[in-house]
Design brief:
The complex is a heterodimer of chains A (456) and B (675). Chain A is built from 11 helices and 34 strands. In chain A, strands 5-4-1-6-13-8-14 form a 7-stranded mixed beta sheet, sandwiched between helices. In chain A, strands 16-19-22-25-28-31-34 form a 7-stranded parallel beta sheet. A 6-stranded parallel beta sheet of chain A has the order 17-20-23-26-29-32, with no helix packed on it. In chain A, strand 2 and strand 3 form a beta hairpin. With 675 residues, chain B is of the alpha/beta class. Chain B has 21 helices and 36 strands. In chain B, the strands form 7 sheets. Chain B has a 9-stranded mixed beta sheet with strand order 16-17-20-23-26-29-32-35-36. A 7-stranded mixed beta sheet of chain B has the order 5-4-1-6-13-8-14, with helices on both faces. A 6-stranded parallel beta sheet of chain B has the order 18-21-24-27-30-33, with no helix packed on it. In chain B, a hairpin with a 5-residue loop joins strand 16 and strand 17. Chain B is elongated. The chains are: A alpha/beta (456), B alpha/beta (675). The interface between A and B is large, with 34 and 37 residues.
Chain lengths: 456, 675
């Protein structure tokens, strides 16, 4: 497949403080004891997309990510790691690595997704329509996925009612309108010419942009060159392409011109009249773009297509602490096919080398990493515990994530919290909806609710 | 046996339906579409009489309503139409179909007025028993209605707020473009607009999916519940069925009324609102899409035509010489003679016409009793009754020749022009549609030496809506229409601009207040109501009450000055009576002395503007407003005004001087009181 895949792995994401740090860039956050990036790589590999560029913000982070990749999958995939400056935005990152891009089409995948939607399908749709850009859409979770997670911290679950407003044509092939972020606050204004050309447009607020895009390389590079102010792929580049799809300003797109030229060139002269009347009659043909284009000289179009993922597919972006909790819960729960682990008879995953004390119970949908030790009379429910953790006696862990090498003293009670690697909880600490930074020490006997423990 | 059990099972659930079924199916036909798009023809003849393939439009509508299962039709129309209906067979010859007429009062200029009038009648007679079909004039259709009415009733029973079902149809050509948004599952109408697409955020919150359509045609066939009538009465400013009513209902969250749509696909429905749709519907009739309402079927008082080869119709008594070429899809009416060598292509020719030899008629509509002399050329035109086109004349594309116009010899009627024996009405006459702009009465011109008629001014809209195809350059314009509009238009903000806006706002505000005040005077509204209206204006323009006071006072004085008067005393009396009448209104806004000063300076300004009229009365009016029974101005305000003015230029002090005696008197009395 002549597709080059760019994984935008980001760097240090402020949404995820204190889980991420200098030592742990976002891409390496553990989801069920595997870096989140590994899920993306697996997904791509399973679709036979093996030529990858991982773009990481910041040199240090890039080194860390590179180190992990070379240790984990150098033999299976051809991966290049590129470091870009921090805070350049997604468009900026692509601009910086533009010289690496050589293939005809580029598949851009966000590095923080945990999903089983096949990116290959997006690529195929892209090719079939000869589109300038193809966007993968997926169903928006009906309500924030937090309810089964119990007390997931209500202050953090500020999931807006709708993230994206998306306009599709009647066959759900073309993307006619997209609004997101700040634009949603305003009323939805649709361009008349696009609606008239398409005849019908379905405006949906129950779909979500999944941050998997296929771009025609020439188009992408042209836009990035022409519009140096564009920072974000999602908020600048994509809406721009959608908006201008009927009067394209991307001139270097020669392939497109040739193809359309071949398709319509001969008929153009004779059928001019017909085409004109078709335009007037709002011909909603499968490809109104071509009709539109051939109708008037000097008009160029490009197509913006969509691929709508099946509703049954799993999709989460790890972009908030809430999402982190959700992903961890789901991957060892309902969506365990993503992690590749298999459940034991008790519906949990306990590494053989883990040691459990007497009268300790590990409930279903739990994970206990390699070499971890759990003391007597403990109870672990719906939680992920990393490798080589030391957990004392009489400890209760519910709906939480404990990362590698954490130490938890006797009599602690942890609910809905994240304990990062090397952190230490002394005896009888009670935490509820808290996040503890890596290496932090929580004093004995303290009780906390909804707090963030970090060294600053 | 099987049939019987079925019936038994059904009978119980039917009993309820039976009741609603027994309700007569009623329709209201607004036999006037209240637009100016068909001018100049509608000046001389109501639009429902305009012949469509040689049969008046109203016959199509009535015949359809009859066959669609409607039992009673109320035709809202002018006297002329009533006369016609009296003479036609519609009144008596049909036993299951009653036609009743409601004579339109002269003041009704819109669908809203018509429906309000019908509602008034309804209170007295309660003729309309329940849900009814609201149909606008000029509709040609063959869709069945009973099923749809049942559907509407069911929905209404389930959801009390579902008051209307709109019929829409996918159309290949939408000449009257509008945008609708529909819930794809329930078919509820969520959005309706004629020129832009701007969905409200809350709309998107409530509906996960909205289907926007631009390729729909509004058939103007609505199934309405009685609430629709009362809504028109409640909202007395609703005029147009769509722009006002539908958009109003959709925007109104409080009442929560809902409108649903019904898309028809297999049957025909179209409305004639301009020449373009006239052309389209005519072609559809000839091509039998409107079956059974076609020229060779008897559906009203029409005389039958014979369907010939290639889809052309010809009356049996038409006389044509053998060398005449009649092309596809043409219609030749009764007792029409056509001279040798003529070519008739894609055209409709009415009854008793005489077409000379070597005439070319293409894509045109020639009505009755038309004379076309030898060698004429008529392309894509509408030619009305009694027109004479003299030899050698050429009628270009898109032309409309109204009744009895005479085109002179060898004259060329320019493309897209409209010709009538009547002069083009001035703008005031057509407030419903903004069709005629910049009318210049000097534009009249004769149609050649022996012609008769005025050529009306052409505007851009005409080209879009004419019978002829749209010229290519216009087409590009239509398509390009909005592309420049929304390239992230940055609204310029700046101090200069905002000041400018303020001044403009003030000016607009005063005009509005003036209008409101004059209307209040005209309709003799109670002062409290007028206060209410002006308060609304004040809020919407964000004005202070001093501005209101100034604006109202200005309007009052202007009214006084405009009222005929012979002498200064008369003028004073006028002003006094107006002030007395409306002191409640003015008094509401002049409670503070600042506002009173505003009124005084306003009067001063006016006096300066018309020095000889109002000037001498300044002191009297001030005094009058001060007097006890009026109590509009208080002495504090007058004295403050005098103080402020004391330092002004000499030229500014004219009126201060005029008041001097009054002011000294005021001062004295106040001093007295102080003592």
């Amino acid at each position: 497949m002549d597709f080059q895949v760019v994984i935008l792995a980001g760097g240090f994401s402020s949404n995820l403080v204190p889980l991420v740090s200098k030592e742990v860039p976002k891409a390496l956050l553990p989801v069920a004891n595997r870096p989140v990036l590994s899920y993306v790589l697996d997904l791509l590999e399973s679709n036979n997309l093996k030529d990858l560029i991982v773009v990481v913000e910041g040199e240090d982070a890039a080194l860390k990510v590179g180190g992990w990749i070379s240790s984990a999958c150098v033999d299976r995939l051809h991966v290049e790691v590129a470091a870009v400056a921090e805070n350049v935005g997604t468009a900026g990152a692509l601009r910086a690595i533009a010289h690496h891009l050589t293939a005809k089409d580029i598949l851009i995948v966000s590095g923080d997704i945990v999903s089983d939607i096949p990116p290959g399908a997006v690529a195929a749709t892209h090719r079939r329509h000869d589109a300038a850009v193809t966007v993968m859409l997926c169903a928006q979770p009906v309500s924030g996925p937090s309810e089964s997670g119990g007390s997931g911290g209500k202050d953090k679950t500020k999931k807006p009612a709708c993230d994206d407003i998306i306009g599709l044509d009647s066959l759900k092939q073309f993307l006619l309108y997209i609004a997101k972020g700040a634009e949603i606050k305003k009323d939805t204004r649709v361009k008349k010419s696009i609606l008239c050309a398409a005849g019908k447009m379905e405006i949906r607020s129950d779909l979500m942009d999944s941050h998997i895009y296929a771009f025609k390389r020439s188009v992408l590079q042209e836009v990035l060159d022409q519009k140096p102010a564009f920072r974000s792929l999602k908020e600048d580049v994509l809406p721009y392409l959608v908006r201008t799809q009927l009067r394209s300003e991307i001139f270097s797109d020669q392939n497109n011109v040739e193809e359309n030229g071949n398709g319509n060139g001969k008929n153009n002269m004779q059928n001019n009249e017909v085409v004109l009347s078709q335009i007037l009659s709002n011909a909603s043909l499968p490809s109104f773009h071509q009709v539109y284009e051939s109708g008037l000289d000097s008009r160029k179009t490009h197509k913006c297509c969509v691929y709508i993922a099946d509703e049954s597919k799993y999709f989460v972006r790890l972009n908030s602490i809430q999402a982190f909790m959700d992903v961890n819960r789901d991957v060892i729960g309902d969506a365990n096919h993503l992690s590749g682990y298999s459940f034991s008879a008790h519906h949990n995953i306990v590494h053989p080398s883990a040691e459990l004390g007497s009268k300790t119970t590990v409930g279903p949908h739990c994970m206990l990493g390699e070499g971890s030790q759990v003391g007597d009379k403990c109870s672990v429910k719906r939680s992920v515990i990393g490798r080589h953790c030391r957990i004392g006696s009489n400890v209760k862990i519910v709906n939480s994530v404990v990362m590698d090498h954490a130490t938890i003293g006797d009599g602690c009670s942890i609910q809905g919290s994240v304990i990062c690697s090397n952190a230490q909880l002394q005896e009888r600490v009670t935490l509820r909806d808290c996040q503890v930074e890596a290496g932090y020490v929580v004093c004995a006997g303290s009780e906390h609710k909804g707090e963030i423990f970090a060294r600053k | 046996m099987a049939a019987r059990t079925k019936r038994a099972a059904k009978s119980s659930e039917d009993s309820e339906e039976e009741q609603s079924r027994r309700q007569r199916l009623q329709a209201i036909l607004l036999a006037d579409n209240f637009t100016t798009k068909l001018l100049p023809l509608t000046l001389e003849r109501p639009n429902v009489f305009l012949p469509l393939v040689n049969v008046p439009m109203i016959d199509y509508t009535l015949a359809w309503l009859e066959s669609a299962g409607i039992e009673e039709v109320f035709v809202f129309c002018s006297m002329q139409v009533i006369d016609y209906l009296n003479n036609s067979g519609w009144y008596n010859s049909h036993k299951d179909f009653t036609v009743k007429t409601i004579e339109s009062p002269h003041k009704s200029t819109s669908a809203g007025d018509a429906l309000r009038y019908i509602y008034e009648q309804q209170i007295e007679t309660s003729q309309i028993q329940g849900d009814f079909v609201l149909v606008s004039g000029g509709i040609v259709s063959n869709m069945p209605l009973t099923q749809l009415i049942q559907e509407h009733r069911h929905r209404k029973k389930k959801d009390d707020k579902a008051i209307m079902t709109m019929v829409i149809k996918q159309s290949l050509v939408t000449d009257h473009q509008f945008f609708i948004g529909v819930n794809p599952l329930t078919k509820q109408l969520l959005y309706y607009d004629e020129d832009k697409i701007c969905l409200d955020t809350s709309l998107m919150d409530r509906n996960p999916s909205v289907l926007l359509c631009s390729d729909m045609q509004d058939c103007y066939i609505d199934i309405c519940s009685l609430e629709v009538l009362s809504l028109f009465v409640d909202n007395f400013d609703y005029q147009h069925l769509r722009c006002d009513f539908v958009e109003g209902v959709l925007a109104d969250d409080i009442m929560g009324y809902k409108i649903f749509t019904h898309e028809i696909s297999s049957c025909y429905a179209a409305r004639i609102e301009n020449f373009r749709s006239y052309d389209m519907v005519s072609k559809d009739i000839i091509q039998r899409r409107t079956f059974p309402y076609v020229p060779d079927m008897k559906f009203s008082g029409n005389r039958l035509l014979k369907l010939g080869r290639q889809g052309s119709y010809r009356a049996s008594d038409a006389i044509q010489s053998p060398s005449v070429h009649v092309g596809d899809s043409s219609v030749i009416g009764h007792a029409t003679t056509i001279g040798s060598g003529a070519k008739i292509l894609n055209s409709v020719i009415g009854n008793r016409c005489s077409i000379g030899s070597n005439v070319v008629i293409q894509g045109s509509y020639i009505w009755n009793n038309v004379t076309v002399e030898d060698g004429c050329e008529i392309r894509n035109a509408v030619v009305c009754d009694g027109v004479k086109v003299s030899a050698g004349a050429i009628v270009e594309a898109g032309v409309v020749l109204s009744f009895k116009v005479v085109v002179g010899r060898d004259f060329v009627v320019p493309a897209y022009s409209k010709v009538s024996l009547l002069q083009q009405p001035t703008e005031e006459d057509s407030d419903e549609e903004h069709l005629l702009s910049g009318v210049d009465l000097q534009m009249e011109s004769k149609l050649g030496p022996d012609g008769a008629g005025y050529i009306w001014q052409v505007c851009d809209e005409d080209c879009k809506h004419s019978v002829a195809p749209i010229p290519k350059d216009k087409l590009a314009e239509i398509i390009d229409d909005d592309d420049t509009e929304d390239e992230s238009v940055v609204t310029p903000s700046g101090d200069a601009n905002s000041i400018n806006n303020d001044v403009n706002d003030l000016y607009d505000f005063e005009i509005e207040v003036d209008g409101t005040f004059l209307r209040a005077v005209e309709e003799n509204i109670v002062a409290d109501l007028a206060v209410l209206e002006i308060n609304t204006l004040r809020l919407s323009y964000n004005m202070e009450s001093a501005h209101c006071a100034g604006a109202i006072f200005y309007s009052m004085m202007k009214l006084a000055a405009d009222t005929p008067h012979s002498s200064a005393i008369d003028l004073y009396k006028n002003a006094a009576s107006i002030i007395t009448r409306w002191k409640g209104l003015l008094g509401f806004y002049v409670k503070q002395s600042d506002e009173q000063i505003e009124v005084i300076s306003r009067l001063e300004e006016m006096c300066q503007e018309s020095a000889q009229e109002l000037g001498p009365l300044f002191a009297h009016i001030i005094r009058f407003m001060y007097e006890e029974e009026n109590d509009i101005l208080q002495e504090v305000a007058i004295l403050r005004w005098a103080d402020e003015k004391a330092g002004a230029d000499e030229s500014d002090k004219v009126y201060l001087k005029q008041c001097e005696p009054f002011i000294t008197w005021l001062k004295e009395t106040s001093d007295d009181e102080d003592d």
